[in-house]
């Protein structure tokens, strides 16, 4: 087995972080530990973990490395450490696949499907903290259907007060109703509340969504309030989805046992990589719960998500968000084989190349890593000046 001898970290526009591992015999693996707005802290965590547990060790002992990174520090979990583990784990799987000459999904047991349904994000510019006007939303919805997508997701919640006016509920519901009218009933529409609603507001909104049959309502409340999800789920026919801000299988186990979730959304860039994400998705299957990997990130994370998507039976759909960025940034895909992540008639095709199935344009990555990204989470305030959830 090859030994890991070198690593590099690259923070690149628009807000992504890549890690590159290299073995003694020249194999290279890429991972993406993107945690928006916290790249410096994740870099430090990756640096410590790689130097302590990866450099000088055999690349192929992926599960042993995962346990060492997770358990040996005594303090564990949380977005910073788990994001760091995520990127390293993805890169190790990339090397393993290249060493074996097979895509990672083959090493996970082989494909369970011939193509993977995608949903396209159309519903708002959360980077700037504002939502698209209805005219742009209508255009994006029509373009998605014309491109063959059978599912889209919209931003379902602007800034909300703890208890907001009926007109605010009407505004949000009207947006869903408008998109439903545009795409018809053959296309699914997910609604992302982004943790911006309190329990009473989430209750009102989800009930009002029912006539428009959304595919799911995402993060109806903040993850620290997940204890109210069973109550929300019992009072509606709308599927409840959440999980992008959970960071361990123990947190997902509690969510599944409580019975308040229909679709889990683990974030592959922040949860422990391919290894932990696969374990969580398999655990969800035993509860009869579907999964849709959360991935509004860069191409390495998307590629890693697809490997699990083709090897996991209870995956419902895969997020496709590379187009959500401004045109000048969306063009920076950092891939030499861009077709590997391109949807065909609303579906991803199985990656054909070994490892994660992507070929990184290293020259472009190095060039763009010289750019000072300086991306921070936008600060949103309500009309009374108090801080609102992003």
Automatic annotation (TrEMBL):
Keywords: Lyase. It comes from the Archaea. The keyword Lyase applies. SMART domains: MR_MLE (SM00922). The keyword Lyase applies. Pfam families: MR_MLE_C (PF13378), MR_MLE_N (PF02746). Its EC number is 4.2.1.6. One of its GO terms (molecular function) is galactonate dehydratase activity. GO terms for biological process: amino acid catabolic process. Residues 134-239 form the Mandelate racemase/muconate lactonizing enzyme C-terminal domain. NCBIfam families: PRK14017.1 (NF010624). This is Galactonate dehydratase. It comes from Haloarcula salina.
């Amino acid at each position: 087995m090859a030994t890991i001898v070198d690593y590099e970290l690259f923070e690149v526009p628009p807000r992504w972080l890549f890690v590159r591992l290299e073995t003694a015999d020249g194999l290279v693996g890429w991972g993406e530990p993107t945690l928006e707005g916290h790249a410096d802290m994740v870099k430090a965590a990756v640096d410590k973990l790689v130097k302590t547990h990866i450099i000088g060790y055999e690349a192929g002992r992926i599960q042993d490395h995962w346990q060492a990174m997770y358990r040996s520090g005594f303090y564990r979990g949380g977005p910073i450490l788990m994001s760091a583990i995520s990127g390293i784990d993805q890169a190790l799987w990339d090397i393993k696949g290249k060493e074996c000459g097979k895509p990672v999904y083959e090493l996970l047991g082989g494909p369970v499907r011939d193509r993977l349904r995608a949903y396209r994000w159309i519903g708002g510019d959360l980077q700037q903290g504002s939502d698209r006007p209805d005219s742009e939303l209508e255009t994006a919805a029509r373009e998605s259907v014309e491109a063959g997508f059978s599912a889209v997701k919209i931003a379902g919640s602007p800034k909300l007060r703890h208890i907001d006016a009926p007109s605010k509920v009407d505004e949000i519901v009207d947006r869903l109703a408008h998109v439903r009218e545009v795409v018809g009933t053959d296309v699914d529409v997910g609604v992302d509340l982004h943790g911006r609603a309190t329990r009473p507001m989430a209750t009102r909104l989800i009930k009002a969504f029912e006539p428009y049959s959304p595919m799911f309502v995402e993060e109806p409340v903040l993850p620290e309030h997940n204890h109210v999800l069973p109550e929300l789920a019992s009072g509606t026919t709308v599927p409840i989805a959440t999980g992008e801000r959970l960071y361990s299988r123990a947190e997902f186990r509690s969510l599944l046992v409580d019975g308040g979730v229909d679709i889990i959304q683990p974030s592959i860039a922040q949860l422990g990589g391919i290894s932990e994400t696969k374990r969580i998705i398999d655990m969800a299957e035993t509860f009869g719960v579907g999964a849709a990997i959360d991935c509004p990130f860069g191409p390495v994370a998307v590629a890693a998500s697809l490997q699990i998507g083709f090897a996991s039976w209870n995956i419902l759909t895969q997020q496709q968000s590379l187009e959500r960025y401004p045109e000048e940034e969306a063009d920076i895909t950092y891939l030499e084989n861009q077709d590997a992540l391109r949807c065909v008639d609303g579906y991803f095709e199985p990656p054909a190349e070994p490892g994660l199935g992507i070929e990184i344009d290293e020259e472009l990555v190095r060039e763009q890593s010289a750019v000072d990204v300086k991306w921070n989470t936008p600060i949103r305030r309500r009309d009374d000046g108090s801080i609102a959830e992003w």
